[in-house]
Amino acid sequence: MAFINELLNGDFMPHGHCLLWRTDLLLLHVGGDTLTFIAYMLIPLALIKLVRARDDLRFDWIFLLFAGFIFFCGATHILGIINVWHGYYYIHGIIKSMTGIISMLTAILLWYLLPQAISLPGKHAMEAKIVELMRAEHELAASNQRLEAEVQKRTAQLEKMATTDELTELFNRREIMRLLGLEIARAERQGSALSIMMLDLDHFKAVNDNFGHQAGDRALKSAAENFKQQLRITDFIGRIGGEEFLVILPDTDINSAYALAERVRLALEQQTTENPSIPSCTASLGVAQCLSTDDLHSLIQRADEALYQAKSNGRNCVYQAPD
Ligand SMILES: Nc1nc2c(ncn2[C@@H]2O[C@H](COP(=O)(O)OP(=O)(O)OP(=O)(O)O)[C@@H](O)[C@H]2O)c(=O)[nH]1
Fold it and tell me: Per the record, what are the reactions this protein catalyses (predicted)?
């Protein structure tokens, strides 16, 4: 109780009373202390805001210590003003002591931190590091781009391999069947005509037997090229068996398909290769138009039956499937 009384007893002979005798002196002291007090309250707030805003701040606790140290300095100045009129010397003394302790603590820790703070990279070192990092980033982006282009190229190669017949570079069986499924659905949807053509090289076994398998391969490639040349860009051709091919003719009725098949047959028959190592051969063809009752299998079967007829009737000719 006595201690509280001592603390709050402002009736000591206040030395500040001497300032009251001169207004200009009083204003100088009170004005200076007030400004210092305001500044000393604003600085800790700014430091706290900085620490809260930057979670990457190194040694953030030293900023908070500074905030505390400056806060107590401000408190001693406000008591300097109060003590002009009231002598709260105990409170003033306690605050000064606390200011002293926190100042000492800040000073010791600051010296302790100094080597680490000095060893932090300076502006030039940071700039050099940034330039280095940016160069590395560019190199990484460039090699990423190269890698992506390589992946795209490889993916395209793989896709091509998955859908292409290696020897003739036409669509393979799986792909041409997939395309036929799509075209049947499209023709159904749009009510458009769709025909297909089955081609089979004649007596191909004899070609192999007489000229050898490699010559047979060359004849297959050359025949495939010849077929392709007769087709429109919108037609699809695939190799579905050893010497058997399937052509999809979108927007084509049976008459046009038949005429085209005849042209294809003739072109192969007349094929004159400058290369004598490629044996010439002929083909039999069966054409069929997709009916509303057809699905993929029945359409193929009808074209196959027409091809069988062409084979049975002497080969090197075209037969069309009945409606
Ligand atoms: N060179 C080569 N020959 C193949 C290939 N695929 C299948 N053949 C051959 O093609 C021949 C097909 O013979 P067949 O099914 O008897 O038919 P064909 O001799 O053409 O007789 P028809 O079709 O009745 O006119 C076989 O000798 C197969 O070995 C290939 O990729 N390359």
Answer: 2 GTP = 3',3'-c-di-GMP + 2 diphosphate
Write out pLDDT tens, residues 148-185: 999 999 999 999 999 999 999 999 999 999 999 999 99
> How many domains are contained in the chain?
3
If asked whether residues 242 and 313 sit together in one domain, one would say yes
| Residue of 198, 204, 268, 309 to test ligand 1 pocket, by largest number of atoms within 8 Å of CB | 204
163, 171 contact by CB (below 8 A): yes
SS3 call for 58: coil
pLDDT in tens, 12-49: 655 666 777 788 888 888 999 999 999 999 999 999 99
Q: How far apart are CA 277 and CA 86, in angstroms?
A: 122
- Name the closest-CA residue to atom 27, ligand 1: 205
Q: What is the CA(202)–ligand 1 centre distance, in A?
A: 8
Task: Determine the structural domain holding residue 147 and report its residue range.
Answer: 128-163
CATH (domain of 232): 3.30.70.270
CA dist., res. 186 & res. 171, Å (int) = 19
Within 212-260, strands assigned E span 236-239, 244-250
* Closest-CA residue to 237 (of 280, 190, 180, 166): 180
12 and 139 inside one domain: no
Q: Are residues 137 and 182 in the same domain?
A: no
Same domain, 308 and 185: yes
User: Which 3 state secondary structure label does DSSP give 19?
Assistant: helix
| Residue 244, beta-bridge partner list | 200
**Is the domain of 311 the same as that of 177?**
yes
Q: How far apart are CA 106 and CA 121, in angstroms?
A: 23
Among residues 9, 4, 79, 93, which one has the least CA distance to residue 37? 79
